[in-house]
């Protein structure tokens, strides 16, 4: 196919993205009609790389995801420009052989194969925010993409909860016991965000009853690591609809059977 046919196909793919598939996430950033948003990024690296990917043989679901990540990135960029932000002008996005083009392609390929499709709009936010941040170089952008691609939709929602402590004040109690599949799944995801290799959340240091140094394992003692803060900012995880975050918060904060609990010995918070 020609470049023009790829561009036409990309616009068609974006225009057919249904809100029912991706929930409220896309609607949170829309700056106007789809055609106006796509026109605003016409001729940019985002549209050029998107057209190249649209030129490839894609399944219907892959077409949907590529259209959605393109639309979400284009919409977020348009919103930021309307708010007065200026696109970076440091050469990062100069041409289809640039570092920016390579990054955009990586994000779109990640979105294309993201079977958890509700992640896709937040991958689009990666492109949008890197487009305005000159301090984010190519290695940093690719590191952010690798980390974002490795996170599940559940983990993104958990990070979105801890990114919004005012709306979701954690109780002074441990991570809930794994008494059923949903509870086990949420508890395990939270522990994996604390433990290496992800290490996006952390437990506060504490002193046990016998004077040993350790970690406070209560939920209200968990906070963001620097990497978690960076990922939340680039993906805008605090904008995940509360309807997607609140059920997880309620599961974490619901009453549990009372049990003895004291600070764990140093390093125990890092066990899976």
Which descriptors apply to this entry?
272 residues; two-stranded antiparallel ribbon; 12 helices; 52% helix; disordered C terminus
- Which residues sit in consecutive blocks of at least 5 with pLDDT less than 50? 259-272
Helix content: 40-55%
Q: What is the topology, as strand order, of the major beta sheet?
A: 2-3-5
**Run of helices and strands:** HHHHHHHHHHEEEEHHE
Large-scale geometry: elongated
Structural class: mainly alpha
Number of strands: 5
- Mean pLDDT rating: 87
How many domain modules? Answer: 2
The number of helical segments is 12
User: Taking Cα atoms only, what radius of gyration do you get, to the nearest Å?
Assistant: 21 Å
State the separation between the terminal residues, measured CA to CA. Answer: 49 Å
Strand content: 5-15%
| Largest sheet features | 3 strands, antiparallel
């Amino acid at each position: 196919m020609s470049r023009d046919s790829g561009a036409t196909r990309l616009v068609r793919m974006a225009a057919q993205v249904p809100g029912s598939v991706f929930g409220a996430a896309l609607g949170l950033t829309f700056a106007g009609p789809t055609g106006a948003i796509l026109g605003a990024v016409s001729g940019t690296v985002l549209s050029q790389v998107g057209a190249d990917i649209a030129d490839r043989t894609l399944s219907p679901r892959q077409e949907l995801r590529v259209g959605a990540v393109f639309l979400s990135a284009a919409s977020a960029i348009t919103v930021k420009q309307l708010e007065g932000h200026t696109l970076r002008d440091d050469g990062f996005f100069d041409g289809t052989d640039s570092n920016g083009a390579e990054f955009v392609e990586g994000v779109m390929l990640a979105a294309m194969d993201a079977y958890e499709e509700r992640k896709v709009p937040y991958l689009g936010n990666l492109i949008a925010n890197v487009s305005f941040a000159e301090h984010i170089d190519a290695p940093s952008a690719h590191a952010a993409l690798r980390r974002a691609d490795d996170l599940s939709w559940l983990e993104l929602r958990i990070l979105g909860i801890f990114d919004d402590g005012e709306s979701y004040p954690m109780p002074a109690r441990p991570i809930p016991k794994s008494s059923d599949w949903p509870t086990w799944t949420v508890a395990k995801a939270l522990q994996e965000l604390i433990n290496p290799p992800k290490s996006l959340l952390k437990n506060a240091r504490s002193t046990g009853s016998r004077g040993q140094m350790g970690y406070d394992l209560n939920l209200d003692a968990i906070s963001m690591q620097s990497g978690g803060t960076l990922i939340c900012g680039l993906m805008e995880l605090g904008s995940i609809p509360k309807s997607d975050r609140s059920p997880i918060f309620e599961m974490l904060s619901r009453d549990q059977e009372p049990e003895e609990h004291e600070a764990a010995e140093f390093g125990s918070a890092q066990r899976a």
